[in-house]
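cron nightly-structures :: item 1 of 1
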Amino acid sequence: MEMVIDFPGGARVDAHFGSFTVKTDQPPMGGGEGSAPTPFSVFLSSIGTCAGIYVLGFCKQRGLPTDGVRIIQRVHSNPMTGMVGEIEMEIQVPQDFPQKYYDSLVRSVNQCAVKKHMETPPKFNVFTKAA
């Protein structure tokens, strides 16, 4: 997969791939307009939405309704480094959701491709080239 990253103005940075564009910006205190999420927020949201795809697929395969099902993702930073130290995902289900599936929901989230890639991060190769 190839993405083209460009700079449409201000502190905005966009990623283009296929027929999609993911727009990002910085908050006003960071020199932006706050017109879109920050790149780091998009990164974090990819973890939760990926987990959501697996929960959705699990429920659909079993004919379980997803009304009232949601994931609450909490990010805990290491106070010494400011880096993310822990990501907590709470799968909330309605009272009438079959309890026999609770552990299976957790296992389904653990299959998330984004989560797996973070657990075994890729190597980065960054370089400059004149176009």
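cron nightly-structures :: done
The longest helix spans residues 39-62.
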